[in-house]
Amino acid sequence: MEQFKQGFTEEEVAKPFIQTFNQSVSNYKKEISVSESLDAMFPEQKHQDREVAKIKEVLGKLADSFTELQLKEIVTDIDFLVEGWLDEFEREKFGGKTLKELLHEKGGL
């Protein structure tokens, strides 16, 4: 161990690690907004925002009579209903099971 200490200085050993750390830090986007951070953590929010935009387009001027929160609730309610109706339809067609359940039984999902 004593020979190792004599052969290299602390600076020489640490230099590659410091360079790597500095490169990683410089590659990191320093000015990131709270909104961007939340979007990165919760990508489903962007999906819901796109759905709200679609609803606004479909409803046209009628969408102006709803708040943003009400439109998000409408999207959630519609998604829930469509999923339920689709499951019910699949159960009628596939002997009481959904397509997802059938595929899972076959090792697909």
DSSP strand (E) fraction? under 5%
E-strand count: 0
First-residue to last-residue Cα separation? 55 Å
Please tell me how large the radius of gyration is.
27 Å
Class based on secondary structure composition and strand pairing: mainly alpha
In percent, how helical is the residue content?
over 70%
Categorize the overall geometry. Answer: flat
Q: Main sheet? A: none
N-to-C SSE string, H for helix and E for strand: HHHHHH
List segments where confidence is low: pLDDT < 50 over at least 5 consecutive residues: none
The number of helical segments is 6
Mean pLDDT, all residues: 80
Task: Summarize the structure in words.
- With 109 residues, the chain is mainly α.
- It contains 6 helices and no strands.
- It has a domain at 34-109.
- The longest helix has 26 residues, at 68-93.
- The chain is flat.
- The protein starts with a helix and ends with a helix.
- The model has no long low-confidence stretch (mean pLDDT 80).
